[in-house]
Amino acid sequence: MLNLDLSKLSSFLPQDFTASRKAALEQAASMLANHNGPGGDFTGWVTLPRDYDKEEFARIQAAAKKIQQQSQVLVVIGIGGSYLGARAVIELLASPNYNLKKKNTPDIYFAGNGLSTDALLELIALIGDRDFSVNVISKSGTTTEPAVAFRIFKGMLEQKYGKEGARERIYATTDAHKGALKGLADAEGYEEFVVPDAVGGRYSVLTAVGLLPIAAAGIDIEALMSGARQAMDELSVPGLDNPAWQYAAARHAMYESGKKVELLACYEPPFRFFAEWWKQLYGESEGKDGKGLFPASVEFTADLHSMGQYIQEGERLMFETVVHFAPKGEFLIPNDPENIDGLNFLSGKPLSFVAEKAMRGVILAHVDGGVPNILLQLPAIGETSVGWLIYFFEYVCGLSGYLLQVNPFNQPGVEAYKKNMFALLGKPGYEDLKAELEARL
Ligand code: PA5
Known about the structure:
It is globular and about 65 Å long. A five-stranded mixed sheet has the order 1-10-9-7-8, sandwiched between helices. It has a five-stranded parallel sheet with strand order 3-2-4-5-6, with helices on both faces. The mean pLDDT is 97. Helix content is 47%, strand content 12%. The chain is built from 16 helices and ten strands. The protein has two domains: 3-34 and 225-404, Glucose-6-phosphate isomerase like protein, domain 1 (Rossmann fold), CATH 3.40.50; 46-219, Rossmann fold (3-Layer(aba) Sandwich). By secondary structure, the protein is an alpha/beta fold. The structure holds 5-phosphoarabinonic acid (PA5). 5-phosphoarabinonic acid (PA5) is lined by residues 79-82, 138-140, 143, 146, 200-202, 284, 411, 414.
C-alpha cells in the first residue's frame, strides 16, 4: 500500500539510523503486541481491526441508516479524540464540501469542540427547522465542552420532538461502565455505543467514536476497517524493512539530530482535517516529560505562498513528511492558440503531472534549504487506503512514543487547564484553587 521514500533524509543522518535502533524497535513492537509497555492498558487499538465488536459494528450500520432516514442533519458532539477522527475521515473521503453537496445522507455538523457562542448560534441557525439527530461522544462523559453542547441540543430535540421523539434521535458513545454520560444515557434510554476500555480517545477513530458519524455520511466502514486490517497484518511483522519501523526510526533520528518540528504536508485540500487528527495523535502521545517533536501541518501548494518562505529559509528546526496520494481522476490542461499567458508548454498535460513536478521541485528545494524529507506515497484516496493510513500512523505513533521513552497513551498535561477552568467557573470542590487563581488574575 505504501511506498516510503527516505532517500531525501539520508544525507542528514548516519547511514545506520534504522539499524542502530533495531533493538529499541523490537522492544517497542513487542510491548505493543503484548500490551505490556507503559500505558499498555490502552493498547487495545493494536488488534482492533481484527478484534472489533462485530455485533456493535452491525448496530452502527443500522443506526447510520436510521439517522439517514430520519434526519437531514446529524450533529456530532465531541472534542479531541472524540471529534477529530470522524471529521478527518469524512472530509478526506466525502470532501470538506460534503454539506454543500446534493446527497441522500444528512449534513453533518460538529459541535462541542469549543466554547464559542458565535459558532453555536450559527450552527443552530444552520439547522433551522430541519429534522436532526445527535451523536454525543465522550469517553469520560465529563468533558465540559461536549457536556454543555449536549445539554443544549438535547433540550432542542426534546422541545421539537418531545422526550420520546428525542430518545429516538440521540445516540450516545461513551464508556461501557462509568461516567456522567453513561448514567444519563442509561437513565434516558438512548441507544449506546462503547468506547472500549483499552482504547484512548486519539486512537478511537476505528471504534463507534468515529465509525457512527462516518457511516452516517455514507462512507463504507467495512472497507475502512479492511484497509486498517491490511495495515495491521503488514505492520505487525517485525523487521527493518517494516515501513512503520523505518518511519518511526527516521522520526526519532531526526529528533535526536536536533529537529524539533515535524511538518506534515499534503497536496490534497481534503487532507486538512486528517492532518489535525494526526497532530493530536502525535502531539498528545509524544509531547511530555519535556520531550517530543512538535507536530505541525501545511497544505501545499497553497501554503508555499504563506509558510514557504519560513520553511525554505527560517530557523532550521524542522523536517517534512509529505503524504502523496495518486489522483482519482484526470484533467488535461487546455491548449490556447493565442498563448498570451505563455502556458502552452503545459497544453495537453494532466494537472496531476504539474502537481507531481511541483512536489518534486519543492522537496528538492526544501532539502537544499536544510529541511530533510520523508515521502509517503499511497494509492488514490479511498476507504481502503485511508483505513490503512490511519492504522499506519497510529502504529508508528505507538512505536515512536516507546523509542522516546514516554508513555504514548496518557495525557496528564490536558488536566491542568481543566482544573483551572473548573475552579474559575465555581465548580464545587475547587474553592481553594479558585481563590488562589483569582488572586493571580
Ligand atoms: O485523546 C484523548 O484522550 C483526548 O483528546 C480526549 O479524546 C478528549 O479530551 C475528549 O475526552 P472525552 O472523550 O472523555 O470527552
